[in-house]
Amino acid sequence: MTKQHWMGVIVGILFTGAVHAQVGRLEWHKGITLPAMQDGKAHIGMAGPIAGVTGNCFLVAGGANFPHLPPWKGGAKEIQKDVFIYRKKEGRLSLIAQDSLPMAVAYAASLSLPDGLLVIGGETPDGKTAVCRLIKYDGSTKKITVSDFPNLPFPLANMGTVVHGNKLFIAGGEMPDAVSDQVLKLDLAHLGKGWVCVGKLPYAVSHLQLLSDSQNGLYLLGGRKAHPESPSTLYHELWCSADDGSTWSKRADIPFPAAAGTACLLPDQGIWLLSADRGNTFHQVEALIFDAKKETNPSQRQKLIDAKNKLQVNHPGFGRAVWRYDLKSDEWKRMGDLPSNGPVTTTAVVWGDMIILPSGEVKAGVRTPEILVATFSNK
User: Fold this and answer.
1) CATH code for the domain defined by 26-278+318-377
2) Rounded to an integer, what distance in angstroms lies between the CA atom of residue 57 and that of residue 140?
3) How many alpha carbons lie under 13 Å from residue 271 in its C-beta half-sphere?
4) Residues 6+ apart with CB under 8 A from 336
5) How far apart, in Å, are the Cα atoms of 170 and each of 157, 160, 348?
6) How many Å apart are CA 98 and CA 37, to the nearest integer?
7) What's the average pLDDT block by block, 10 residues per block, for the chain (379 residues)?
8) DSSP-assigned letters across all residues of 187-203
9) Most CB atoms within 10 A, among 32, 74, 124, 152?
């Protein structure tokens, strides 16, 4: 082997090591749990909670759960209004106050802004809403205050949202009777103009992730689209927009369908996908629901319903695998595991070097009261 060839091998090894060294890591801490409910019973957790940072505190609120019976036993879903406020202390979260929202809401988008936590749309006991509100925490009163913000042009829930400079973006989401393919923008410097449509997505999609990098790029990943008479489409695509959502280009596919998951873009120039519903059990349940609706024989219909209930009871969960997409190499790589089954239908909150996964759904109809906390390190 020539000297030049050996030098090439050595440089290649050093370059590979340098690239590897740039990839960050997550150190998961012992999780904390939501406090007991007002009746003294242990909290069961909620799906679709509001979550973010306001007044140098972490806030989690609202969400939906089945407080009395699980859905396969006829339990009704209820939308909550409790608010839990945490302070960061020595890399941990500590509960400092509790309060209530003026209106119960779940499956809204929540964005941490300099002036407070913005709650966008969502689902209320009366249905989907277009209302947007800014929540602030007052440390002197240990209460929240709520003020109006420009409403959406139409009711929307389970959408992707991100802060991108001084602009807010929304992608997709569930409308009352359809799934959206629109990209909406709100300019914080011109609130009077309200939310405006600035582009269309490659397809209508809800339960997706929308992220932003430091180079004016928007990233859309995963999600699903419900159909009226057949199981939902689950997406494994990753798309990027360099013009504020006007046009989209395809990137490397996620290695699996990824709906209702949690993801964040971290300083190592990586998109970290922390959880997702890959749809295996979800599709089987949907198919049985549609078959039961079409079945005219009562006994056969009940058999289909029983089979659906059995699938939900024995749901295996959404797994623990953590994946990372590298913005530079356009590649996905598995990065390890969560300390417990990954929660879906919640929001990954990045607060400095802290990553928070608050509550969420861990099996069909089953929530977790656990708040997972990790520290990100780029060394």
Assistant:
1) 2.120.10.80
2) 13
3) 30
4) 26, 322
5) 11, 6, 16
6) 11
7) 44 40 86 85 95 95 94 93 93 94 97 96 98 96 96 98 95 97 97 97 98 91 93 96 96 97 96 95 88 89 89 89 97 96 96 96 94 91
8) ETT-GGG--EEEEE-SS
9) 152
**How far is the C-alpha of 351 from the C-alpha of 359, rounded, in Å?**
17
Amino acid at 138: D
Distance of CA 1 to the CA centre of its chain: 52
Nearest Cα to 156, choosing from 217, 205, 101?
205
**Residue ranges per domain, the chain?**
26-278+318-377
Per the structure block, which two tokens stand in for 48?
A: 């679709």
Cα–Cα distance measured from residue 299 to residue 296, given in angstroms and rounded to the nearest whole number: 9
Record the tokens describing residue 368, joined without a space: 């977790």
16 in Cβ contact with 10 (< 8 Å): no
Burial class (CB in 10 A: 0-12, 13-18, 19+), 355: buried
DSSP 10: H
Q: Whose structure tokens read 């205050």?
A: 145
Q: What is the pTM of this model?
A: 0.91
Residue 270 vs residues 106, 112, 182, 273, 360: alpha-carbon distances, Å:
29, 21, 26, 9, 23
User: Nearest Cα to 162, choosing from 234, 240, 83, 103?
Assistant: 240
